[in-house]
Amino acid sequence: MNPPDETDQSENILIVDDQANNLRILSEILAKKGYKIRKAINANSALKAVYSTLPDLILLDIRMPEMDGYQFCERIKADAQTSEIPIIFLSALDEVFSKVKAFQVGGVDYITKPFQEAELMARIENQLIIQRQKKQLQAEIKKRQEKELELQAEIEKRKETEEILYQSRALINSVLNSSMDGIAALQSIRDQAGAIIDFRCLLVNPVMTRMLRYKKEKLIGKIMLKIFLQNLDAKLFNNFVEVVKTGKPLEKDFFYKKENDERWYHFIALKLGDGFSITVRDITQRKLMELELQRLARVDGLTGVANRLCFDETLAKEWQRCRREQEPLSLILCDVDYFKKYNDTYGHLKGDECLIEIAKAISRAVKRPTDLVARYGGEEFVIILGNTATEGAITVAKVIQEKVQQLKIPHQTAKDKNYITLSIGVASVIPYPKLSPKILIASADRALYEAKEQGRDCLIIGNCLLENITLQ
Fold first, then answer.
1. What domains does the chain contain, in order, with CATH numbers?
2. Tens-digit pLDDT profile for residues 183-236
3. In this protein, which residues make up the domain named Response regulatory (predicted)?
4. Residue partners of 356: CB distance under 8 A and separation at least 6
5. Which of 29, 65, 330, 446 is the most buried (most CB within 10 A)?
């Protein structure tokens, strides 16, 4: 690559010298050659000038107040934005040490004062030629890289995945046969308008055949995905079509049952040519553990009935359902009488056993599977009765009292009876838009409080109309 013969008139040079006379002489020399000149009387001013507009070259004195030329050069070379700017030191210091240090900190040349104008210009123009060539080389490299990227993109577009698939079948089969996951590849079947109407199975590994309970011969080459998905999830067909159209992967869990075998699977489908590949993993054990963890998260750890979280969620759902259907919803709130004294007398271990037995008794009294028994907190239990008016709730509450009394759990420190009893508050309401579930809870809680005030071991009916809670 030949350097240009003439000076690039757009190139600008920054002169840094603390002597005004030196700045003037250098400026006059360079200005005559057509260069754009900027001057700085010290290193700090020079830094501002550099970051204002990057110069093509810097002429730098060494001895300057506050920051000398070496320090200035180190600052410039340490910044990636300015590190490529060539710096020529111009100094009266003629010792070898000064020159060596100038090159060590990043200088590209060193000219001693007093200088010869011809030598100065030759060295400046030499560095600018090198700088031009470097920029041209960088531009050429960038251009080539862009062309390579364009070429690579074009190659990727032209790849025929289906052809590669057939040509590499032996290798692919060996990989497929060693996989622990079920793997299959399917090709789009299109109508005359180009719309995907089904998929043909191109290959399938042994794990996939075992998962589906189909022989390999019944799958390879067959157009059957649409029919198969109708028995599983008809929406999946359109999902797979979108994978082919958009290239966006599809990932999903699904439940599959054939004969007496029930399984959970997880699959990921990826676009492959004019079709897709699918990898399926058996996640039955993981799914069962997740379901069990979800169940445990909604169960009280001591009594085995529902916990407060489960109660809140169920009440919200039942409230919405009864509001839509305009059916009554009832709540029974139970409190174990004098339970603190029971704990103090018999100990917390016996107290836990007492709560477990009471929870079992309440659960036996609540017959319908749609109703919910939950531990509300401490020694309190709550029962949600959907589609149940006050009369029905009272009947259930009385059965609960009877079941608990039948336990005959000794309680010598109780005031009236020598065994465990319950105080119960009952509330019922037909939800409508301006009411909140809080009104039902507040009414049952008020009734429970009144039951305790009236001597415990009794049942009080609450009145939701007396509660000042209407906002949802």
1. 12-136 (3.40.50.2300), 165-283 (3.30.450.20), 298-466 (3.30.70.270)
2. 999 999 999 999 999 999 998 899 888 888 888 888 999 988 888 888 778 889
3. 12-128
4. 302, 303, 304
5. 330
